[in-house]
Amino acid sequence: MGATTTEAHVETEAPFRSKIGCVKELAESSDLTTIPSKYYYSSTSTTALNLNQQHGFDEQIPIIDFSLLNSNIPNQRAKVIQDLAKACLDWGFFMVINHGVPESLMERMLGMCTHFFNQTEDDKLQCAEVDVLAPIRFGTSFNPSVDKVFFWRDFLRVRVHPQFHSLPKPAGFSEISLEYTKRTRQVARELLKGISESLGLEECYIDKAMELESCYQVLITNLYPPCPQPELAMGLPPHSDHGLLTLLIQNEIGGLQVNHNGKWVNVHPLPNTYLVNTADHLEILSNGRYKSVLHRALVNDKATRLSLAVTHGPCMDKVVTPVTELVDSANNPALYHGMTYKEYMEALLSNHIHPKSLLDRIRV
């Protein structure tokens, strides 16, 4: 977009933008009492994950005290490293407290995301792009060009590192997102140092091996409006994330569930916390020791859920393979083939959303 956009680009983009539509505008239709059939979600092909279990279970999700990672008391640091190891092994999901990011900054960032979605449909569609790796991309569902079933979700993806991109409006989005993603990047890198130690590696092993100074960081905000038939629709189906770690915050409306031991567990975050999940490339790096966790987003018929995820992955050109120190040709052979992070993301985002189809494809 902008002054340098070519006429040919405009010609190809205009029909795409006119067809994409927004769930928010559909949900706000005064006469909407049933959802269009393209939003009917069927879980018949994935019943092994008990996807029809809408209500979920309530279990205690692991809590990690981030402040202890920098403790000068050896026993405290050792304890939090053990806690991280257990959380990654047992859950692949945990809540982070005492992370040091101001709660006011988190609230302002969520507010900016709300302002973006409250713009006119025409304004939002200026950010609609065909290219799945476009620096700024507004869309609906997961990938409408290939989705057989549409998901009850609008989204905005913004690449923020190593090159920072932002929106001209709403006013203030650029400044707040720059500060917010800088702070989340610091938290993610510190967590990965602890995770690196928990695997028996040097503290900075993952940071250096994955070139995290140039890490690929993306801000993704999701809007799930009220749905008149929530039992028929899905916000996002079961999936794992690309990258190493995802840090997520949300408004007070629930709907996030994580798959734990074959059961869907409701996530009830404490105030001023980050929800963190391990992702595909941490599973590859650890040679399957730390699994990327499946999670999903349900919708409801009463209130809008807003979430904000920031994904942290390796350098784009990095070929990710299992760490040599964690591979033993006799007892623990390498479980995954190498692939550049960019190739992985292009393949993942260009296809149908699936629990772990791409990760399964590169298994040895």
Automatic annotation (TrEMBL):
Transmembrane annotation, as ranges: none
Single annotated GO MF: metal ion binding
UniProt xrefs under SUPFAM superfamilies: Clavaminate synthase-like
Residue stretches making up the Fe2OG dioxygenase domain: 215-314
UniProt xrefs under Pfam families: 2OG-FeII_Oxy, DIOX_N
Superkingdom in the source lineage: Eukaryota
Keyword set, alphabetical order: Iron, Metal-binding, Oxidoreductase
InterPro entries: DIOX_N, IPNS-like_FE2OG_OXY, IPNS-like_sf, Oxoglu/Fe-dep_dioxygenase_dom, Plant_2OG-oxidoreductases
Similarity comment text for this entry: Belongs to the iron/ascorbate-dependent oxidoreductase family.
Protein name according to UniProt: Dmr6-like oxygenase
Organism: Thalictrum thalictroides
Lineage per the UniProt record: Eukaryota, Viridiplantae, Streptophyta, Embryophyta, Tracheophyta
